[in-house]
Fold this protein.
Amino acid sequence: MISLRNICRDYKSGDRIVHAVDEVSLEIRSGEFVAITGPSGCGKSTLMHLIAGLETPTSGEIYVDEVALHNG
């Protein structure tokens, strides 16, 4: 199972803070098929990078089989 709890990922762009992923909570059980869809720039790739452990969330918790990947 993959569990995301209140995941946020912020980036700094010049003097601005960009909220790429904002307070996402999600649970995917073993055997489930999930599609992440949305318009360009809405955070789909960032969310996938967070789930895969390629990026670290600004805040929130990510668990895979009850093991914390990131607990911020």
The two ends are 19 Å apart (CA to CA). The longest helix spans residues 44-52.
